[in-house]
UniProtKB/TrEMBL annotation:
<feature type="domain" description="Rhodanese">
    <location>
        <begin position="21"/>
        <end position="106"/>
    </location>
</feature>
<protein>
    <recommendedName>
        <fullName>Rhodanese domain-containing protein</fullName>
    </recommendedName>
</protein>
<dbReference type="Pfam" id="PF00581">
    <property type="entry name" value="Rhodanese"/>
</dbReference>
<dbReference type="InterPro" id="IPR050229">
    <property type="entry name" value="GlpE_sulfurtransferase"/>
</dbReference>
<dbReference type="InterPro" id="IPR001763">
    <property type="entry name" value="Rhodanese-like_dom"/>
</dbReference>
<dbReference type="InterPro" id="IPR036873">
    <property type="entry name" value="Rhodanese-like_dom_sf"/>
</dbReference>
Length: 106
């Protein structure tokens, strides 16, 4: 994760659209459980960053599965993506924060 990646802007709306058109993809919310319960993007699964390194290998065994990661503002999802790439996951995309999402939230 370089210095310039900290300033990269992510478009969660575009990312969710891409996720919806990607076969066998997973949408992962890395916010804490209470944040996820307050409102999340439909079909997303919650793997909180605080327990991410313990849960991700159980939840996603296929390291080639397309993964779209979001949080509140993009910081936690960036850390999760870095961790996934470091551990051999090949199709990982940080789509940013739900705070900018304009679609349906449940």
């Amino acid at each position: 994760m370089g210095l310039f990646s900290l300033f990269k802007r992510y478009d969660i709306n575009q990312g969710v659209e891409e996720y919806q058109h990607t076969q066998d993809a997973l949408l992962i919310d890395v916010r804490e459980k209470d944040e996820h319960q307050e409102g999340h993007i439909p079909d997303s699964i919650n793997i909180p960053l605080s327990v991410f390194n313990q849960m991700i290998f159980k939840e996603v065994k296929d390291k080639d599965k397309p993964l779209y990661i979001y949080c509140l503002g993009g910081g936690r999802s960036q850390r999760a993506c870095f961790y996934l790439k470091k551990n051999g996951y090949s199709h990982v995309k940080n789509i940013g924060g739900i705070s900018k999402y304009k679609g349906k939230i449940i």
